[in-house]
Amino acid sequence: MSVTPAQAARQELKQFKGQLTGPDDSGYQEARAVYNAMIDRRPALVARCTGAEDVALAVGFARDHDLPLAVRGGGHHGAGLGTCDDGVVVDLSPLKDIEIDPGTRTARVGAGCVWGEVDRATHAHGLATPSGIISTTGVGGLTLGGGLGHLSRRCGLTIDNLLEADLVLADGTQVRANADDNADLFWAIRGGGGNFGVVTSFRFRLHEVSTVVAGPTFWPVELAAEVLTAYRDFIPHAPRELNGFFLFGAVPPAPPFPEEIQGRKACGVVWCYTGDDADTAARLMAPLLTALPEPMLHGPAPMPHPAIQSAFDGLYPPGDQWYWRADFVNEIPGDAIDQHAKFGAELPTLKSTFHLYPIDGAVHDHAPTDTAWSYRDARWASVYAGVDPDPANADLIRQWTVDYFDALHPYSAGGAYVNMMMDEGQERVRASYRDNYARLARIKADHDPGNLFRLNQNIQPAARS
Question: Of 56, 144, 246, 395, which has fewest CB within 10 angstroms of its CB?
Fold first, then answer.
């Protein structure tokens, strides 16, 4: 009888301190699960790592046995890039250390943390760093892909606040990358995803953010063209302290939303003003509100920053079916607005949604070549997401997402935010890095010439001359 990878790992990795789980072991179903229930992959081994030494052992095992290697932090990626069939999953979830230094306004964060854990730890000191919009998202995946969220206009992307990272490379070497040490590697991991190694810890710059004025404003979906036009013209000129992303979605069918609007299709803005003065926030939002009919709900209110970060958690728990598409956008002409209004009115399920995140303010303080994240000149990132808990609706939400994306892609800037892409092929990856791709490919060749870290939005190593 042949030895399974899980059996071989237990025989060979005597110094491994974590847990090695294979298909025949109890707990395997839980160990292989990821956030998107549309992903149903069966790895040969899940290596639950307790530290960088465990990561190096698991990476070496996959390399030496020529097995596919996936790296999982929070497991949120829509395409399921944190898992694989018949390979090794490096599970970073036990790496939960968080150290806050209020004096230097920095945080060192283990790669197994989710953002809610970081938000709570930093909030205790009146501090925060940009961290997406759903607090169950893993720190590692969101950071390495860029990191858009509620704080982007004021504080930049998550990668703009990354000061250094500790990595395990393909050959098992452990290195630290920052502006002075392994500077090319540090440049690459700020937007280049998990192509260059397994990050085991991050150190972030923190900002004074404590109480914010945040929440949604909803209009009936029938007003979508009018609302999106006004939003398009308003948000680029708003102060950096005021963030707001446009969305289509159904009003959640639960408190605190008024019963009479629960479940209604809506368009609107989810606000986050990084200050505690509700009157100032209202004054800054007023030009958009006065330009439009009265909304059916205007909900911004003072709250702790972690509250807006976790506001979507209950609506989107693990286990739903997800299908995503994405684009960067520079202009939203009238014809594009008409298409948005059409597809917004055709939301296929209660949880399906569209988000349009502003990319300006502090994000534009950096040049396209300052980090691997190339689209510093874009104005928005669009995300189309078909979502439903019922597997029977998987085809329905996929088709709506693809049709919506296909209708709007002609108005795009070309590439997309890699954290929101599915498995869409090499040309799409190249388009998302533009002129930075060639440098990324050279750095990839330096650190992972065999492309061991390929289960991602893959940057292929440049050929050696």
Answer: 395
Model confidence pLDDT, tens digit, residues 166-221: 999 999 999 999 999 999 999 999 999 999 999 999 999 999 999 999 999 999 99
3-class DSSP state for residue 303? strand
Contact 70/95 with Cβ under 8 angstroms? no
E strands present in 56-112: 69-72, 88-91, 98-101, 106-110
Closest by CA position to 268, among listed 284, 242, 245:
245
Bridge partners of 128, per DSSP, are 207
Query: What pLDDT was estimated at residue 2?
Result: 85
Nearest-Å Rg of the Cα atoms of the chain is: 22
Report the 10 Å Cβ neighbour count for 279.
8
Strands (E), 169-241: 174-178, 198-205, 207-208, 211-220
Q: Residue 440 — pLDDT band, cuts 50, 70, 90? A: very high
Secondary structure element (H or E) that encloses residue 380, with its range? strand 380-388
Q: What is the pLDDT of residues 405-435, one digit of tens each?
A: 999 999 999 999 999 999 999 999 999 999 9
At residue 309, φ and ψ (nearest 5 deg) are -65, -30
Residue 315's alpha-carbon distances to 134, 247, 347, 352, in angstroms, are 10, 15, 16, 11
Q: Are the C-beta atoms of 46 and 70 separated by less than 8 Å?
A: no
Q: Which residues pair with 384 in a beta bridge?
A: 325, 354
With cut-offs at 50, 70 and 90, classify the pLDDT of residue 465: low
* 380-407: pLDDT as tens digits: 999 999 999 999 999 999 999 999 999 9
Which residue, chain included where needed, has tokens 């081994």? 45
Residue 457, Cα to own-chain centre: how many angstroms?
13
What is the token pair recorded at 376? 């510093």
Sign of CA dihedral 123, 34, 424, 110: positive
Determine the Cα–Cα distance for residues 269 and 297; give it in Å rounded to an integer.
11
Give 197's DSSP letter.
Answer: -
Residues in the chain: 465
Q: Which of left, alpha, beta for 18 (phi over 0: left; psi -120 to 50: alpha)?
A: beta
Q: Which residue's entry shows tokens 């982007």?
A: 152
d(CA 377, CA 366) in angstroms, rounded, equals 9
Compute the Cα dihedral for 129, 130, 133, 135 and give only its sign: negative
Closest C-alpha to 353, from 431, 410, 420, 271: 420
Pull the structure tokens for residue 40: 């149903």
